[in-house]
Design brief:
The chain has about 80 residues and is largely without helices or strands. The chain has a domain of about 35 residues. It has one helix and four strands, in the order αββββ. The strands form two sheets. It has a two-stranded antiparallel sheet. The chain has a two-stranded antiparallel ribbon with strand order 3-4. The longest helix has 8 residues. The protein starts with about 25 loop residues before the first helix and ends in a 9-residue tail after the last strand. The mean pLDDT is about 85. It binds zinc ion (ZN). Zinc ion binds next to loops.
C-alpha cells in the first residue's frame, strides 16, 4: 500500500501524487520476487525423440498427437 503526503492531496488545486515514504530495499525486493523468468518447458517427441515445445507440432518430423500433421521440411542443397 502506498501512502501519500497530506499536502499533496487534491483540494481543488492541481497537485501531483507523491510517495510519502521511500520504498525500502526489503519492500523493493519483495515486489520483485515475482519477476523471475521460469525455465522453458521442454518435452521430447515420441516419434523422433527430438526436444519440442509443448502443444506444438514437432519441427523435425511434423508429428503431433501421434499423427503426421505437416510434412517435415527437407533440406534442399
Ligand atoms: Zn518428432
Amino acid at each position: 500500500m502506498r501512502r501519500f503526503h497530506p499536502s499533496t492531496v487534491c483540494k481543488g488545486s492541481q497537485a501531483m501524487a507523491v510517495p510519502k515514504r521511500r520504498t525500502s530495499h526489503a519492500r523493493q525486493g519483495n515486489r520483485r520476487s515475482h519477476l523471475h523468468v521460469k525455465p522453458i518447458q521442454i518435452q521430447y517427441c515420441p516419434q523422433c525423440n527430438e526436444p519440442v515445445l509443448p502443444h506444438r507440432v514437432c519441427p523435425n518430423c511434423g508429428y503431433y498427437q501421434g499423427r503426421e500433421v505437416v510434412a517435415p521440411e527437407k533440406e534442399e542443397k
